[in-house]
Amino acid sequence: MERLREITEPLLVWYDENRRILPWREEPTPYHVWVSEIMLQQTRVEAVKPYYKRFMEAFPDIETLANAPEQQLLKMWEGLGYYSRVRNLQKAAIQIMGEYGGQMPAEYEQLLKLKGIGSYTAGAISSIAFKKPYPAVDGNVLRVLSRIRMDEESISEERVKKRVFGELLELIPRERPGDFNQALMDLGAGVCVPNGAPHCEECPLKHICLGFQNGSQSEYPKKALKKARTIEEKTILIIQDENRAALKKRPDKGLLAGLYEFPSMEGYHTAQDVVKYLEENGLKTLRIQQLADSKHIFSHREWHMIGYQIRVDELSPKGDGEFTKDFIYLEPERTQEEYPIPSAFAAYAPYLNIKLTSEKYKE
Predict the structure, then answer these.
(1) What span, in angstroms and rounded, lies between the C-alpha atoms of 259 and 254?
(2) Assigned domain for 272 exists
């Protein structure tokens, strides 16, 4: 703990000279801080910037967010992934409208009661927007402090996060709590980086960092071993007639809940298998072409995909199969504007001459 007491002054001096200029920081209202912190969970800063701008234009305040149609909300989030985040944003906005008169509560304990807000996000909002002395302990902070102390405990354990929170609660500067938290975030994101060699020569804390002094900084932090991801094989079908394409809404719960996807078959299938499958569902294939393979990685699983582009005579399937009951048929341009499709299918969207939001922002 004594070593941590030495970090505040050099850290804030460094931050004053090196702070990142970010849109949500330049106008750190409670709403702006909240939305940006939720977006930044599991997502890089540069990827978030265009989403944040567009989101704020569509939902400029808590009331607008609370009243937004879910499909529009999901479309605005298309490509950011972890869609439960935006659903929880709206649920919390509805809570704020009902319980706090539309004003974000200032107290840390009240923030924790809002849907989707844990200790890190509550600490970030309360310290940055309300100047209250609460830490915001994320992976960046845990990594920096682990290297400074050569901490042998795993940062994956909840008790370690709670211990660090308690330690920082004692020393966070009462006059600049938001700057202190953001300084640790920036140091971890740009200097004490997670992958590759940390840029120790640029670090304002190298004179107190045991990891640097012992040349062992890359050995920290300690983490529990991750379980291997489950691999799922899929055959993706881009099915069109002269004017329309087929889409299916995913279940309301579970992975990618409520989003839209292309038809698919579990496992890998030949073109002959696909033609037979469509025929069984009342669709006559005119032309079929195999597409490039693709892979998408989720936190606990991987989708390994092959694909086919299929032209059928008419998207009016007969009978009571899934193509009659579960699919919708619409013009591709409507898909681009109205229907949220996850980035897992980004490799196949161009075959409908549409571009998903995540691909637009790469340009």
Answers:
(1) 11
(2) yes
Say if 238 falls within a structural domain.
Answer: yes
Give me the number of domains the chain comprises: 1
**Spatial CA neighbour of 288 closest among 352, 239, 235, 236:** 239
307: number of CA atoms within 13 Å, CB side? 23
Question: Is 37 annotated in the active site?
Answer: yes
Helix (H, G, I), strand (E, B) or coil at 107: coil
Q: How confident is the model at residue 354 (pLDDT cuts 50, 70, 90)?
A: confident
Average pLDDT over residues 193-202: 89
Domain holding 238, by residue range, is 230-360
Question: Cα separation of 76 and 241, whole Å?
Answer: 28
- For Cα atoms 24, 54, 187, give the angle at the middle one, nearest 5 degrees: 30
Tens digits of residue pLDDT in 63-79: 999 999 999 999 999 98
From 6, 9, 26, 37, the catalytic residue: 37
Whose CA is closest to 326, among 336, 317, 338? 317
H-helix segments, the chain: 8-18, 23-26, 30-40, 45-58, 62-66, 70-77, 84-99, 108-112, 119-128, 139-149, 158-171, 177-190, 210-213, 271-280, 322-325, 332-338, 357-360
Q: Which of 282, 276, 286, 284 is nearest to 325 (CA)?
A: 282
The CATH number of the domain where 245 resides is what? 3.90.79.10
Q: Is the pTM of this model over 0.90?
A: no
Which residue's structure tokens are 């971890």?
188
Confirm whether 29 is domain-assigned: no
Residue type (1 letter), 48: V
Query: CA-based Rg of the chain, rounded to a whole angstrom?
Result: 24
C-alpha 338, offset from chain centre: 21
Q: Where are the beta strands (DSSP E) in 260-337?
A: 260-261, 264-266, 285-297, 301-312, 327-330
- Taken in order 215, 221, 222, 225, is the CA torsion positive or negative? negative
Residue 127 lies in a domain: no
> Which of the 8 DSSP states describes residue 97?
H
